Amino acid sequence: MLNSRNVRGVPRLPEGVIRTPEDTLLEAQRLLDLGMPFHAHEVLEDAWKAAPEASRALWKGLAQLAVGVTHAARGNLAGAGALLTRGADNIEPYEGTSAHGVDITALLRWGRHHAAAMADGTAQVPVLCLRR
């Protein structure tokens, strides 16, 4: 597979895969742990597109956090900061809810901290769910 610069890259994941919320979080976390935040974004984006209205912003925000890590890794610090901020803004309404076991408070703190700290070029992998 060639990417936009005609360089061989990692193929994208298939789109539209329906997973349970738990399977989505576990797969996204696995991909984040492997250093594949764009692929984690794709998994979370599938959940976002298939989610009922009540949880759509949660999945959108989680996808934005993952793609923010992607932009940071590619050196686009301004884009990374903007996406981390948008992601945090989208998940904030779920703070204090069960949100499929996601620690929204911790992700908010993480996203806002790294959005503010993009100038130093650091971004760590967020933890979406407890590992099993």
The backbone outline, from C-alpha atoms, is globular
Low-confidence stretches: 1-7
Q: From the alpha carbons, calculate the radius of gyration and give it in angstroms.
A: 14 Å
The helix count comes to 5
Number of E-type strands: 0
Strand content: under 5%
Commentary on this structure:
The chain is mostly helical and 132 residues long. It has five helices and no strands. The protein has helices at 21-33, 37-50, 53-73, 77-91, 104-116. Helix 1 (21-33) packs antiparallel against helix 2 and helix 4 (77-91) runs antiparallel to helix 5 (104-116).
What features would you highlight for this structure?
132 residues, 58% helix, 0% strand
Question: What's this model, at a glance?
Answer:
With 132 residues, the protein is mainly alpha-helical.
Helix-strand layout with pairing:
Layout: H1 21-33, H2 37-50, H3 53-73, H4 77-91, H5 104-116
Helix pairs in contact: 1-2, 2-3, 3-4, 4-5
